[in-house]
Amino acid sequence: MSGVTFIKIKPEDDGIRLNRWFLREYPSLSLSRLQKLLRTKQIKVDGKKAETSLRLCAGQEIRLPPLDNEKAVKNEKVVSKTDVDFVRSLVLFKDENIIVLNKPSGLAVQGGTKTTRHLDGMLDALAYELNERPKLVHRIDKDTSGILVLARNRKYAEILTKAFREHDLQKTYLALCVGIPLQKNGEIKAPLEKIGEKMQVTDGGKKAVTTFEVLDTVGEKFCLIAAEPLTGRTHQIRVHLEYIGCPILGDDKYFGLKRYRLQNLSQKLHLHAYQIDLSSVYRKKFVVKAPLPDYFKEDIRFLGLNFREHRSQ
């Protein structure tokens, strides 16, 4: 038949459902037309009749009739050279499956009503040699700096999404806090619930657990804390540290009017996603660390805090 083509399934598409593959590659092809083409054997997989629910395997071959009118037209977003240079300067690690960024404080991960410049709008600049933009698999707050992991293909998007959802990836945050906790280390178990615009500790909230370790202190005024969230609630570390009497410096939302102001300290949020352990994904010891932003380092130095590199257990 004239115009018939054959396409091999790429390794990164291993496991994708047939209907989802067509939705991505041929967005104008309706489900009813797809089902008819499959029913009449105009579309086959490895020469055999297939159903829309079939999960494809890498290397399988799809037989296609002429579908030019339904083919995806790539709507490539134009990223300015300034933003291309900027977002690529954030890359800490890159291989064929994953990119790890060191996101600055103040840059939103995704857009919103009042947010037009955000990381998601720059991801096309991180496609590099591949044809698809990397995918967001988790989030960190706009004002939190540090590690953000991206998946470069569908397979690793699923692997990483599952790992984040099941908390298989150990994440360590550094926080410069006002006040000193009663214990040098411990576990904060305080359920969280969103009330209005804030997350609050309530008896009826969802389970939330954070472990912490005080790395250094300045009298009774400031401390540097390493915190590891064992659950993934919104603003969890921020609320939990405020709950034990150590709000994070620069946290307007949860420190409010009690915010400690010193002329020589930055008013930015001093919370940094410092380290992530990707060993469970790579099946070997693999840890990525993100250098502290300049304002965070300068304030640690100004206060005389000693940042000894935190070592996970």
Task: Provide a descriptive summary of the structure in words.
The protein is 20% helix and 25% strand. By secondary structure, the protein is α+β, with helices and mostly antiparallel strands. The protein has 3 domains: 5-70, Structural Genomics Hypothetical 15.5 Kd Protein In mrcA-pckA Intergenic Region, Chain A, CATH 3.10.290.10; 81-165, Pseudouridine synthase, CATH 3.30.2350; 170-303, Pseudouridine synthase (2-Layer Sandwich). Strand 12 (209-218) and strand 13 (222-229) form a beta hairpin. The model has no long low-confidence stretch (mean pLDDT 89).
What is this structure, in a nutshell?
The chain is of the alpha+beta class and 313 residues long.
- Strand content is 25-35%
Show unreliable segments: none
Number of domains: 3
- CATH homologous superfamily grouping of the largest domain: Pseudouridine synthase
Q: CATH fold name of the largest domain, please?
A: Pseudouridine synthase
Number of DSSP E strands:
15
Secondary-structure element series: EHHEEHEEEEHEEEEEEHHEHEH
Average predicted local confidence, pLDDT: 89
Rg from Cα? 24 Å
Shape: elongated
Largest sheet, if any? Answer: 10 strands, mixed
Cα separation of the termini: 63 Å
Can you tell me the CATH architecture of the largest domain?
Answer: 2-Layer Sandwich
How many H/I helices? 8
CATH class of the largest domain: Alpha Beta
Q: Specify the helix fraction band.
A: 10-25%
Going by helix content, strand content and strand pairing, the class is alpha+beta
